Amino acid sequence: MMEVELLPLSLDDMEEMAGIFNHYVEHSFATYTETPVSMARFEGLMNFTPGYPAFVARDSGGSLAGFGLLRPYSPIPAFDRAAELTCFLAKGYTGRGIGSMILQALESGAVELGIKSIVATVSSLNEGSLRFHRARGFVEQGRLVGIGSRNGRRFDVVYLQKML
């Protein structure tokens, strides 16, 4: 595994995080948006929630290798023990164990909060993310077939869940 340090996410990281996200907007089907997003739009999409675990991974040179965060699955109290996952790695940093490291830290933080279930929603066109989640204990619990369209291609939203 590559030398990276996990640090609590801070507002100073937002611009670099948006840059990673926008790379996936432009070069993959990992996001649902078709055009790069502004900082304000990025913050809205991420729905950062104080008190929930959120980390950045920085390599030994200080470059942002990736980020991950949990947020409430729903504002409805019945779902207080469920969280939704978002995780993105910078170009060139996938397949090096960094995503697993971020996920483990998020899961530890979730357990401390009493969260029992983590949900990830993934585009059916994002095979790498589907493989990543399944290999780490997430189970497909359903999908919304053909609900999305991006760059002229229809896709399903796949619901993956991991019980903690």
UniProtKB/TrEMBL annotation:
GO molecular function, one term: acyltransferase activity, transferring groups other than amino-acyl groups
Keyword hit for Translocase: no
Pfam family, one: Acetyltransf_1
Signal sequence bounds: none
Taxonomic superkingdom: Bacteria
Matching InterPro entries: Acyl_CoA_acyltransferase (IPR016181), Bact_Acetyltransf (IPR050832), GNAT_dom (IPR000182)
Listed PROSITE patterns: GNAT
Ranges where the N-acetyltransferase domain occurs: 4-164
Sorted UniProt keywords: Acyltransferase, Transferase
The name this protein goes by in its record: N-acetyltransferase family protein
Source organism of the structure: Chlorobaculum thiosulfatiphilum
